[in-house]
TrEMBL record:
It comes from the Eukaryota. This is TPR-like protein. Keywords: Repeat, TPR repeat. The keyword tRNA processing does not apply. The lineage of its organism: Eukaryota, Fungi, Dikarya, Ascomycota, Pezizomycotina. Residues 934-957 have a biased composition (Basic and acidic residues). InterPro entries: TPR-like_helical_dom_sf (IPR011990), TPR_rpt (IPR019734), TTC27/Emw1 (IPR044244). Residues 932-957 are annotated as: Disordered.
Amino acid sequence: MPHPLEWNLISGADVPDPQPSSTAELVSSVQTGDFAHILKAPFTQSLVTPQSPPTEVFDFLKSLRERIDVVIGNGKEAGYEKKLEFILVGIAALNAFIQSNVTGPPLTFRPEEILLPRALRRSERKDVSDKVIRELAVEGEAAYHLIPHALLFALAKGILSHPVLDTGEEVESMRWWRLRMNFLHQRMLEGEKTALHDVVYKDVDYLVAKLQRGDFAPGMKWVQARFLIEKAQVDTYFGYEKAAREGLERAARVTGLQYAITGVLGKRTKYQERDISQLVVLARSKEDFVKSGVKNGGEKNGSGEVEVEVAGGTKPKTLDLNDDTLLETISFTKKENMSSTAVIVDDETKLPEVLRKLDPGEQPPLHPLDSTILLLLTETIKNNNPATGITREQMAPYAERVLKHSTNWEVYTIGLLVRCRIEGYKSRTAERGLLQLQALVDQVIAETTLPSENGSAPKTFLPRPKTEEESAPVRERLEYVYQLPAPTRWELEAELANRWVSIGGLKTALEIYERLEMWAEVALCYAAIGKEDKARKIVRNQLLHPVPTPASWTPESEDDEYKPTQMEEAARLQIYPQPNNAPRLWSILGDIDNDPVWYEMAWEVSNHRYARAKRSLGRYWYNQKEPLKAAEAYTASLNINQLNKESWFLLGCCRLELEDWEGGEYAFRKVTVLDEEDAEAWSNLASCLLRRASAPVTSTSTRELLDDEEELVDSSLTGENDEWTDVKRNRQDALKALKKASSLKYDNWRIWENTLIVAASIPAYTDVALAMNRVISIRAPTAGESCIDVEILSRLIQHVLTSCNPEDLIEPRSTLSKLTITLMEDQVLPLITKDARLWRLMARLALWRKRPKEALECHERAFRCISRGWEVGEVKWEEVMEATVEMVDAYQGLGEMEREGLANTGKEGAEKVMVAKDWRFKARSALRKTMGWGRKEGKEGEGAWDRLEEAQEGLKA
């Protein structure tokens, strides 16, 4: 059974009284946010105090690792209490870092004064902090160089990542806290990093396995729900949208959340006279957890589960819309005022009973965990759909539901942030969205910034809280922060600057970027508006020493700057050491100049670790039509970061151009693993498989198969048919890939057409029928009958005629013969205009169905198509003669047959009803018409003329 103390930190439950142990006191201090007490404790000081006074630039992380080894005794004598105490220091440092960079309120202490030797001067402390930030770089990607209180995160990382914690499993929650720490590290960097992805999912997989076995926090459903939500957030970040959605749905089942997005009649504008359907999220938590006042720690119910009461007294400032047209919130029609025909969209009875009873405008408060589920659902909607107004309209109801009755400070903050992002694209809500984002930025800055030494505090857009009662305590702010996609203060400010750029406020955006010293973003802003020279100058000034101003130069005005000559500019030397983000700056310079030299420089400066440099170089060579050089660059990039889907895709394209089908197959398979919804990757994978099918076989080893398909026989067991088996397998795998691609891009006729061709080459006739049906459905309005592949359709009909039984048509299940009949009657028949081959196929199918009358009519239509084609010069004379002979044969073979639907009545003497009593007359007429044309055009005696005469003699008998 898990120790209750470590799970108190996860569940939020108070430590039960009395708990005289020092460990219980530490847990209580972490819960209440008294991190200074833990960091100043003798045990913590023994970890951060170096063994000997620092002589050079103090290496905080190295000293920490050495002290941990000494204090903990290399893990040999570390029992549960010792390890938990050890971990609590790391948790306190991690939470303090989040408090100082994400949630606030300001720390009550200065970490540098606690964690660094007192002998260090202020400048030396800054050097130590800068060194720590540089060491947070992963795969050449540097963290933000002005991270406040980075020592706290370094302390947390040094402790929670120490190998001593892997020597046993006494502290069950250790891996969870390490997961949180590593995921926060990933979020502080730009783009997914393979190294962090691997360590994060190592702990995720371990915890998932324990959860599936039932020995992960057994009996603590709220703890399990927290983990499922956090895992969904990790999956969303790394692009595993399907897993994220499944995790959120499972978390909702654990917490008992019931929700549905539906439509309810209401008004959105002030002048709207008629109620129309409005999107709304109906949601209800399992229990009502909200009480007026401050939450207590948590109480155990009868089943031993922890139920947490949440506060509802404080929340961040919210700006009103104040629009002359739009209402502040949707005014939903009261149910008693609805007409008998006014129901929730589609069918109200499909909703659960508990949701059907809810008043959309006055829904009960949600438990904060349930609110985090709804907020993360907006992320999955955004990632799974195009960035359009429809997607944002679908996201908005989730945010509004959370904001309606939010019961936690940080949950409400993220709800406001999600709404800001949605509102930034509408003219009537863009102003509120921008100002609210500005208010959130000011809130975060004010709530995470320590007062300066003179006591001054940062200015804010809205008045700061006057008393502590107007602001939420540390405990409430951190309670659910790990279940929320909460950005850091610098990320939020950068988002505000980007919003200003989007609405044309370039000056304000540049002020923000310059204050944050995000020189790369400053340069990108200038480059985006066509000021490449300004952008180039900014980047070069960060990387190269300035050109000294000549003593002879005299400025013409106060603002005049010396402009170096081209030779002086080229002679500038690099600054050493280079800035943390030097690889990115060199790459941006390469983008501005479109010069591969700067990408190579970025690669060298990063010590061959900055994957983006090689990605940019690959893109450059790809645009220059140099696929070999591009492939080499992308390969080098992917050796560092294997999570970049675009790099795998473009590497696959390079391999296609180089006719390296095996390499292309491998690359596109990687893309489909990273994003199984990429239709182009599936289609290109199929292309590689098909090319391999036609190329010489180089290996007969077992190959990886696509999902949800039967395993094929290993080609190494097939003896002399190895090559044919491999070709067939490649075609089958190609078909599977194309079927996946067509399901993702259902309206792309080219993918469907490729599916049709590959299915016909195997052959897989059911897929042929389905693909042809879809191709015709898409292309028929514009291409008419030319969209029909007559050759493949003929093969399909032939297969049905020879292998299927007409009696299959009366079976209730779907069969190939049914699919084919539906295809011919619903899709092909309405399109036939002048292609006689299609009428002949219709005739063969009709005869197979024992419909000779219909078959003969189809032959007659085919003959008319040929006749009209001859008259307008679209058909050759030989085709006319062949069609005439075929028409006569059809009259002879079908004319005397019994007509379908009009068989003998069973009475004696009943007359037999023939398909065509006058078939001889019609046959002679067809022959006379054709032979008359021939004599008139001087074709007598040519080609099949003898066959016409033989047919004419046969009719005389």
